[in-house]
Each structure stands twice: as C-alpha cells, then as structure tokens.
Design goal:
533 residues; alpha/beta; eight-stranded mixed β-sheet; 20 helices; 14% strand; elongated; disordered C terminus
Length: 533
C-alpha cells in the first residue's frame, strides 16, 4: 500500500474518533473536502427541494408544449428524454465540480440561476413556438435541459459536503438518494393533483422560479463564506425573474384562459359579428354563432349535421351522446332544429365548459347535460340501447385520446346505440392517412356498415392533403344517396366513400385494440396552419 493512501486512511480513523455529531446531525469535524459539513436538515432540504423542482418542471413542460407539439406520445418522450439527460448531465458535472472546488459557494448561485431559467421557460418556449416553427423542439429542449441540469447538480455537491469520513459514504449517499426520490414523488403528486388544477402553467413556472431564487439568496448568504458576497453572486439571476414574469403575462402565446388541459382563447369572426371561434392550444377547435345555432362554419361539423339530418325524420327529437364537447356546436344545432332533443356530453376539461358558459353563451339544463369526465368512462355510464346518435368529437390536432379509438371502446359505443342508431365521429389525420384507415378497419370489426365522408383531395391522396374527416358506423345500412346529396349541398368538395371503394382505400390497415393502439405513430403530425381542430 502506498504511503499517502495509508496517511489518508489514518486521517479518516482520526475523524471517526473525533467529535460527535451535533444536534442538527452534522459533525464538528471538517468534511472530506474541507470546511464544516452541512447539517443533515440543510442537506435534506436542498436535495428534497431540488429533486421536487425537477419533476415540477418536467410535468409542467408537457402542458407548456401542448399548443405547439400536441399532447402526443412523441411530446411526452421528448420531455422525459430531455429531463433524464439533464439529470444525468447535472449529476455528472456536479460531482466533478464538487470534487475539485469548495462548492459551498456554488449552491446559492445554482439555485438562483435554475430559478431564473425556470421562470423564463414560458417566454422561451412560447417565443420559440411563435417564431421558429419546428424549431420549437430546440427551444423546448434548452428550456427543460438547462434548469434540470442545474438543479440535478445540487445533490452530488450536497453529498460531498455531508461526507465526514469514508466509512459513512453509503449511509450519506444512500440517505440523500432516498430523500431526493421522496422529493421527486412530492413534486409529481403536487403538480398533478394541485398545481396544474389550481394555477396556470405560466404561474406555476414563474412561482417556482421565484421560490428557487429566494432559496438561492438565503443559501448563498448562509453558506457562501460571507453573506454579502453570497448575495452579490445570486443577484443577477434573481433579476432575470422579472422578464420571466412580464413575458408570462404579456408575451407571445398568452391565453384568455389556461385550463387544466388547454390554452384557450375566444376570437371574434371579423366577417360575422356574432361569430366566435374557440381556439384550444393554437387550433381553431369550434365555431359558434351566438345568434344562429344553425350556422355551421366548419366543414366537419356540417358533415356531422348532415348525418343527423338524413338518418332520422326531420324535426324528430333525438337522444344523443357526445364524446367531447369543445364549443358544443352540434348539441346547439340539434336543439335548434330538433326541439326536445336530449344531449349528454362528456367533456374532460371543466375550464372549457367555463369558457363555453362565460364567453360562448352556453346554457345547460335538462336537455343538455354536460358531464366533466373522461369519455371512455363516460360512455360506460350510458344505458344500453338508449341513444339514437353517438358523436365522437374528442380529437384535436395531433392529440388523439387513443383509448377512444380501440375495438373495445367502439364495442361500448355499439352497446349504447338503439336500433337504427348511428355513430358519427370527427377524425383528424394527415399525409398517408394511416390513422383514419386503421380506425375504419377497427369500426368494421364492430359495426356492419361503415362509410367515410372526406374532402376529394384526401380521398384521392393528393400530396399534403389531410385534416378533418367524418366516419359513420351503424348496424343498419346507411342511406348513402341521401347523405351524399345533403353533404354536397353543404360542403361541395366533400364526398362519400363506401363499399368496395372504401375497401380499396382502407386496404390492410391494422385494427386498434386496448392492447395495441399506436395512434401517435399512425397519425402524421404535420397539420396545415389554420385548419379547424
């Protein structure tokens, strides 16, 4: 054994036989890298808080990116991958730095700088989404990576400052790792169940940034070997919170209302004084004419209305169940042209319903029951054979709730339809239309009759074609002639596809099941700007 190694071990033996830990859990002996070790409480608080903050940033980033990338599997993969890369990089760099310097002076600036980066996230991501198009990936990656790495560097630094002898390495590192995991769990639970429900996304990030900056100021003053110098080092990042706050409130991408699931805005139609467009996550989701519920601006809504008009006798009231609400354009239409129609709507986002009531003049009541619930769970509450019409309108942009596309979900829809009942769904796809083909193949395993309503450009496979299409499924034959005539009168560039022609168009598309429904991969995520969602 080398002599210098024996000297080091002897020094550690001396440390172990030295003074007892104080009441706060710290030994009065110096840490292995010089200076007083952190107390157990301070170390636990730093690791717990920084780990919690990383998970808050990761989860909130998913909602921040939704207006530009959609709530898709790819978006989740991007955010999780970048966050894990940030954690790995931060831990590695933090460990290297901790071994080579007196890192007490770094903790305050690290916290304050990470807080400034978190507070700036809404500005960076939304600004990137507005000006960079597909480059929002780079803006998003940077916005997540930088604060994640800074926060993740804190744990190895704290571990180094807690170590007083090598015999306690396992208990110190293992204990701090456990505390960090508990912090991550706390950040996850609080974000999912409290923060996102109670606060807008921008408020969560700016608020977290302020907390981290204040923590950095306090830690810098107490541990920075000189309170004034610690405050000086944390002052620049603290000032960056101000533009973050201003940008979150008045910057690009701001919303009228931030709901739990959406950035919502209501825009007046310049060509129609009573027309209002509900914009969710940057997509024109619904059009409502406050004075005339029969005005159907979007082609797919006109197609859905044409299905109801031709499948049932005129003015006859219906029982209708709607998977997805949005602006509730179709329920309003049915109530107007078929007085006495009873509609039940499953809308997952309570904030959207609030916008409908406050900004779009919606009035609920016995004939219009809007339930805040997931559509898959909602359809299970509907009595068997009780509905004339089930409308699927829960898809927006490239965000597809896959559990509403599967054979099992469609079996539930068939269960609630009465004799002669119809299922009509708005679907969205682009490029090769693989998702729509798969959904039609899935419907054909459940219903005896399926037809497709779509624009001529989509059906003929023109390059870049895509957007909204409508599928109709029933156990009884669909009156294609009447439906085609009615559709042509409203949307001249749409037509109906059925029978052998539809067989050829669908080809050997896969059937979607609860066990295998890769809708995010089937749906080509290149929507045309301005198309309704």
């Amino acid at each position: 054994m080398r002599e210098d190694a024996r000297v080091d071990l002897d020094a550690q033996d001396d440390t172990r036989s030295g003074p007892e830990p104080d009441a706060g859990g710290a030994s009065s002996a110096d840490s292995l890298h010089g200076g007083e070790p952190l107390s157990a409480r301070t170390a636990a608080a730093l690791v717990f808080g920084s780990s919690a903050a990383v998970l808050v940033v990761e989860l909130v980033a998913l909602r921040l990116l939704a207006p530009y990338l959609g709530l898709t599997l790819e978006t989740s993969t991007l955010v999780i991958g970048v966050a894990l890369a940030a954690i790995a990089a931060g831990a590695w760099v933090g460990g290297r730095v901790a071994d080579g310097t007196d890192s007490r002076r770094l903790l305050g600036p690290l916290l304050a700088t990470s807080g400034a980066c978190v507070a700036l996230m809404p500005v960076v991501v939304r600004g990137g989404g507005e000006v960079a198009g597909a480059g929002v990936f780079l803006f998003a990656a940077a916005a997540i990576f930088v604060p994640g790495a800074l926060l993740s560097a804190i744990s190895p630094i704290v571990a180094t400052l807690r170590l007083t002898d090598l015999a306690r390495t396992g208990s110190v590192v293992g204990g701090l790792s456990g505390v960090g995991t508990l912090g991550a769990i706390a950040g996850t639970v609080l974000t999912g169940f409290v923060f996102v429900t109670a606060f807008p996304v921008s408020a969560i990030l700016v608020g977290l940034g302020v907390v981290l900056v204040l923590a950095g100021v306090v830690v810098g003053a107490r541990l920075g070997r000189g309170g004034r110098s610690g405050l000086v080092r944390t002052a620049p990042p603290a000032l960056l919170v101000v533009p973050g706050l201003l940008g979150a409130v008045w910057g690009p991408g701001s919303c009228d209302v931030e709901t739990v699931y959406h950035c919502a805005r209501v825009v007046q139609d310049d060509d129609r004084p009573t027309g209002r467009v509900l914009v969710l996550d940057g997509l024109r989701h619904s059009y409502v004419d406050l004075a005339d519920p029969t005005h159907l601006e979007f082609d797919y809504i006109a197609a859905l209305a044409s299905v109801a008009d031709t499948a049932f006798p005129a003015t006859e009231p219906l029982t209708a169940y709607h998977l997805g609400g949005g602006g509730l354009t179709l329920p309003r239409y049915l109530a107007e042209v078929r007085p006495g129609t009873r509609s039940v709507v499953s809308e997952i986002d309570a904030g959207v319903l609030d916008v409908d009531v406050d900004r779009l003049g919606l009035e609920t009541g016995p004939d219009l029951d809007v339930r805040i619930e997931d559509g898959r769970l909602g359809v299970e509450r509907i009595a068997a054979a009780s509905q004339d019409l089930v409308v699927g309108d829960a898809f927006g942009g490239v965000s597809v709730p896959w559990h509403l596309t599967t054979r099992e979900a469609m079996t539930e829809v068939r269960r609630v339809l009465g004799p002669g009942g119809l299922y009509a769904a708005n679907l969205i796809d682009f490029g090769p239309m693989d998702f729509v083909r798969a959904e039609i193949a899935t419907l054909r395993t459940v219903f005896d009759h399926v037809v497709l309503l779509a624009g001529t450009d989509v059906l003929e496979g023109e390059a870049g074609a895509g957007g909204n299409v409508v599928v109709v499924a029933s156990q009884a034959p669909v009156d294609g002639a009447a439906l085609g005539d009615r559709l042509g009168g409203r949307v001249p560039d749409w037509r109906l596809l059925a029978g052998a022609e539809l067989d050829t168009w669908v080809g050997d598309a896969m059937v979607l099941t609860d066990d295998h429904a890769p809708v995010d991969q089937l749906l080509t995520p290149y929507p045309t700007p301005g198309r309704p969602g």
